[in-house]
UniProtKB/TrEMBL annotation:
InterPro entries: FBXO31/39. The keyword Nucleus does not apply. Keywords: Coiled coil, Signal, Ubl conjugation pathway. Residues 63-74 have a biased composition (Basic and acidic residues). Pathway: Protein modification; protein ubiquitination. It holds the Pfam family Cyclin_D1_bind. The lineage of its organism: Eukaryota, Sar, Stramenopiles, Ochrophyta, Bacillariophyta. This is Uncharacterized protein. Residues 133-160 form a coiled coil. The keyword Hydrolase does not apply. One of its GO terms (biological process) is protein ubiquitination. Residues 63-83 are annotated as: Disordered.
Length: 358
C-alpha cells in the first residue's frame, strides 16, 4: 500500500513542536487588506474561480450562497478566511511582539499606540476573535443587567461563529478506518465541542458511540496575539499548489479506541485538521488518521442500509464504495499530490466529473 503524500506530510507535522517562525513578507499588505475589509464591501477573494480543487457542485453552491448573502445584506466580507487569516494572525503575533519589546524597554509610546491600533484593526476581521470577544462582552453586559446590549453581542458572536469553517461541519461524513473499511460519522456540536458519532458499526466501536470529540473553543492565546498553542500545518509548495491553500488549521481533540466488542474503551489524544472543505482526524498515540469526505445522498442511503443489515460483506458493495471513494481527492490511499490526477491542470477535469460525492 502506497501512502498519500499529503497524508505523510500531515502525519509528520502533527507530532512536530518546532518553534514558530513568522513570515514578515505579508506585513503591510495584510493590514492594508484588513483596513479595506473594514471600509469596503468588494471582496476579490470570494471569486470562486480563484479557488482550486472545488467541484462544480461546490462552485454552484458558492455562487448561490453569494447571491443569498448579497440579497440579505449579510456580509461575510467582514472577515478574512483561509490562508489570509493565518497570515493575518502571524502579523498580529509579530506586531504584538514588537509592542511587548517597546513596553518592556519603556520606549516610543507613539509607536506602541500605532501597533495597538494595527492589532485592533486586524482582530476585527478575525471571526474567531470576534466570536470570542463578543461572548465575553455579552456576559459582562448580562452581569451589568444591560440585556439589550448583551443581546447585540450575542448576535454578533453568532454571526462570527457562522463564518468559522470548524463550526460548519454538521452532518454525515464518510472516512476509511484502516482495515475496517469505510465508515460513516455524524457531526454535531455541543457548545464549542464538536462530537462525531459513529453511524456505521465496526467490531471495536459500534454505531451510536462517539468516535471523537474536538475542542473548538476560541483560544485566548491566539486571540490576543500570543504564541498559538497549535500551529496550523504548513504545506510544502507543491502540495499547497494542489490544494489551493498553504495552511491547514488544526484543533485539539480526543479519539475513542476500544478492543473488539467495545471492550477497554478509552480516550486518546487526537487532532482535527481542516483541509479546504474536508477534514481529517488523527488518533495521535496510535498513529491512526482518517480523511473524511461528504457522501452523496445515494451513498448515504446505501451505507445506512448496510449498517443495519451488518457490514458490507459482499464484494459488489465494496467495489461500489471504492469507486465512490476514488472520487474524493482526499481519501485515496495511493493519492500522490505531485503526480497523476492531482496535477493542477488535471484537477478541474477531475472535479468536473459527475460522481458519487456530487
Ligand atoms: C445526525 O445528528 C443529527 C443531530 O443530532 C440528527 O438529527 C440526525 O438524525 C443524525 N443522523 C444520523 C443518520 O444519525
Amino acid at each position: 500500500m502506497r501512502t498519500a503524500t499529503l497524508f505523510v506530510c500531515i502525519t509528520a507535522i502533527v507530532h512536530e513542536t518546532a518553534a514558530f517562525t513568522h513570515p514578515s513578507l505579508l506585513r503591510h499588505s495584510l493590514l492594508h487588506k484588513a483596513a479595506s475589509f473594514n471600509a469596503h464591501s468588494e471582496e476579490s477573494s470570494s471569486d470562486p474561480s480563484a479557488f482550486h480543487g472545488i467541484s462544480s457542485h461546490e462552485l454552484r453552491h458558492m455562487k448561490e450562497a453569494k447571491v443569498r448573502k448579497s440579497e440579505s445584506h449579510q456580509t461575510s466580507k467582514s472577515f478574512v478566511s483561509g490562508d489570509d487569516l493565518q497570515s493575518l494572525r502571524r502579523e498580529v503575533l509579530s506586531l504584538n511582539q514588537e509592542r511587548q519589546k517597546l513596553l518592556t524597554a519603556n520606549r516610543d509610546p507613539h509607536r506602541v499606540a500605532e501597533l495597538e491600533q494595527a492589532i485592533w484593526q486586524a482582530q476585527q476581521v478575525d471571526a474567531e476573535y470576534v466570536y470570542y470577544i463578543s461572548q465575553l462582552r455579552a456576559e459582562k453586559a448580562e452581569e451589568e443587567g444591560d440585556l439589550k446590549r448583551a443581546q447585540q453581542h450575542r448576535k454578533q458572536a453568532k454571526r462570527a461563529r457562522s463564518e468559522l469553517p470548524q463550526f460548519n461541519l454538521d452532518g454525515l461524513w464518510v472516512g476509511r478506518y484502516g482495515n475496517h473499511g469505510f465508515e460513516m460519522i455524524n457531526i454535531t456540536y455541543a457548545g464549542d465541542t464538536m462530537i462525531a458519532y459513529k453511524v456505521t458499526d465496526n467490531d471495536n466501536v459500534p454505531s451510536g458511540e462517539v468516535s471523537f470529540t474536538v475542542d473548538l473553543s476560541p483560544n485566548p492565546k491566539t486571540i490576543h496575539g500570543e504564541t498559538p498553542l497549535l500551529e496550523p500545518i504548513e504545506l510544502n509548495h507543491d502540495a499547497a499548489e494542489q490544494w489551493g491553500l498553504k495552511y491547514l488549521p488544526r484543533f485539539t481533540g480526543r479519539g475513542q479506541v476500544a478492543r473488539k466488542g467495545f471492550r477497554n474503551a478509552q480516550w486518546v489524544e487526537g487532532q482535527l485538521i481542516l483541509v479546504n472543505k474536508y477534514f481529517s482526524f488523527a488518533w495521535l498515540p496510535i498513529g491512526h488518521q482518517v480523511f473524511f469526505g461528504r457522501p452523496s445522498a445515494e451513498l448515504t442511503l446505501k451505507m445506512l442500509r448496510e449498517s443495519r443489515s451488518k457490514r458490507f460483506a459482499d464484494e459488489s458493495s465494496r467495489a461500489f464504495l471504492t469507486r465512490c471513494w476514488e472520487e474524493t481527492a482526499y481519501i485515496e490511499d495511493d493519492m500522490d499530490v505531485t503526480d497523476g490526477i492531482f496535477k493542477s491542470h488535471d484537477q478541474s477535469f477531475y472535479y468536473d466529473q459527475a460522481g458519487c460525492f456530487e
